[in-house]
Amino acid sequence: MDWQPDWGLRVRMFVTMFLLFALYIVFAGVLTAYLTGGANLLVFGMIFGGFSLGQYYFSDTLTLKSMGAKTVSAEEYPQLHSSVERLSQQADLPKPKVAVVDSKVPNAFATGRNQRNAAVCVTTGLMRTLNQEELDGVIAHELAHVKNRDMMVMTIASLLSTIAFMIVRWGAFFGGGGNRGGKGGGGVMVAILVSLVVWIISYLLIRALSRYREFAADRGAAAITGKPSALASALMKISGEVDKVPDRDLREEAEMNAFFIIPIKSGIVGKLFSTHPSTERRVEQLRDLEREMEGF
Questions:
Q1: Please, which residues have CB within 8 angstroms of residue 7's CB and are 6 or more apart in sequence?
Q2: Domain range list for the chain
Q3: How far is the C-alpha of 9 from the C-alpha of 259, rounded, in Å?
Q4: Which of 11, 17, 65, 267 has the most CB atoms in a 10 Å sphere around its CB?
Q5: Which of 76, 133, 134, 142 is labelled catalytic?
C-alpha cells in the first residue's frame, strides 16, 4: 500500500475544531451575559491555556520524563533504532527520538509537537511480548500518529476542553466575587451549568475524534509496513497481556492513555468515553486491508 492522505481524518479534524470553536463563542457570550465576573474567568482560562501551550511546546521532554522513559542510543538498542530509522524512511519522516520505559505493561506511544520534534517510546514489556514484525507494526502505528500530526491537533482540541473544565471548577469562586454588581446568584449558577455542558460536549467530540485517529493510524501503519496482519497480531497480543498486569501498574500508566496504542482499562470507562475503538474493530479493519492488498 502507498501512503494516501486520509481525507476522512482531515474532515473530522476540521469539523471537530469548527464545532469546538462555535461552542466556545457561545460559551464566551453566556459568561458575558450572566456574569459581571466573566472576564475574570476568561482571564484565568487564558492563563491556564498559556501554561498548557507551554506544556505542549515541550511535550516530548515532559511526557517522556513523566512516564519514566529513557532516551536510548543506537548502541544500547541497535535493533530498535534500526527499526525506527527504516520505518521512518518508509513513512517519509525525520527519525524521531527513541525511548524505552522499563515496564511490564506491553505498550508504546508517540509524543512531540511536530514531525521534527517527535519521540517514539516502547516499553520493555512490549519488546518481550512481540516478534520483530509485530513490533514494526506497532512502531509504524506510532509513526502514523506523527505523520498525521495527531499530537498537535488533539492537544489544541483538548486545551479548549480543559479551559472549560477549569472554569467550571473555579467558576463559583470567581463568579461569586464578581457578581455583587446585581445579577444575583442565579447568574453564577447558569454560567457554571453552561460551562459544564460545554465541557461535556467538547469532551465527547474529542473522544470521538480520538477513536477515529486510531483507525487512521492503523491504516497508516499498514501503508508503511505493507503488513496489516502483523499489527493485527500485535494488537491481540498486547490486549491480552495488558489484562494480566497488576492494577497498580495500570493506574500508573493510565494518565497518558491518549498516546498509547492500546488503552489502559480503568474498569468504568464506556465506549462513549474511550479514546480508542475496540481491539476487535481495529483487527477487523486490518484484516479487511490485508484482503484488499492480496487482491492486487
A1: none
A2: 7-294
A3: 17
A4: 17
A5: 142
Would you state the cell numbers that stand for residue 286, as one nine-digit string? 486490518
Residue carrying the nine cell digits 455542558:
197
Provide the 8-state DSSP code for 263: P
pLDDT in tens, 35-87: 555 555 566 666 666 766 776 777 788 888 888 899 999 999 999 999 999 99
| Burial group, residue 138, by CB count within 10 angstroms (0-12, 13-18, 19+) | buried
Instruction: Name all contacts of 17-25 with Cβ < 8 Å and 24+ positions apart.
Output: 17/153, 17/156, 17/157, 19/205, 20/157, 20/160, 20/161, 20/202, 20/205, 23/198, 23/201, 23/202, 24/160, 24/164, 24/198
Beta-sheet strand order (sheet of 117-123): 70-71, 97-101, 117-123, 108-114
Which amino acid type is present at position 264?
I
CA distance 43 to 59: 24
Query: How far apart, in whole angstroms, are the C-alpha atoms of residue 80 and residue 40?
Result: 50
Active site residue 280: no
Burial class (CB in 10 A: 0-12, 13-18, 19+), 127: middle
Strand partners, 100: 70, 122
Instruction: Note the pTM of the prediction, 2 decimals.
Output: 0.81
How many residues belong to the chain? 296
